[in-house]
Amino acid sequence: MTRCKHTGWLRVSTKDQAYVIESSDRAQRLLDSLPRPDSQYPSTLVLVGNATKRVAMQRLGVDITPPNTTRGHGEIHLSLAPVGASGGRPTLIADADIPHHKRLGRPRKSTLCHELVTRSISTAHSATIPSTAVASGDHVYNRMLFPFADVVCLFADDVGGVEVVAQRLASWLTLETPSTSSVRPWLVVVTNGGEESSARNQLLQAVRKRTNVHASERFHGVRVISLADTSPKSLRRVSIPCVGTY
What is the CATH number of domain 41-98+133-242? Predict the structure, then answer.
């Protein structure tokens, strides 16, 4: 069978005035494609953004090509970085976006090349049902992605700036803890300019205005990386923390 170009893994949509989660067999297919799937343990990198995110993914050896160019709320695509880009250990890249609109699409039809399962959020988890499209995306990230992530990297300018990142971070922190594991991912926030310590202080202060939950309860640490430009040297600084060097 011809190898398809679909990279979609998870997606939130609406059906009968309710939120549903669509999940494909993309993750299982990628894991099965590893040379030694029973003994290799990939690290998982979460990238949230659009334009700058795509450049960073290219630096990691992954291109976003049609029909996989846009992401909706709670829509996650999954790719496997070339081994050379991750120092020998397989790296799964889960990429998403926080779009400016607040819309969700209808459930997609199953394709011939992927299995697709659709479940209501209310039956998939016992947590409070999200009330908006943005909240539904937070729900998916919190319950189905962050527990397996090593690094979560948000590109602030892609999603609307540090304040938008603070809004989403505060929302994630106030959601029910999805895992009892003591292992937590790093949170990396990338900005296109400005001084790093100032941007970090701005981010954490904005989060504290919205919630009393400290970021350390969900993340191993928070780092802000400021890029003065998009030169290869600057973008390399993005890839260093994102492939698990902490």
Answer: 3.40.50.300
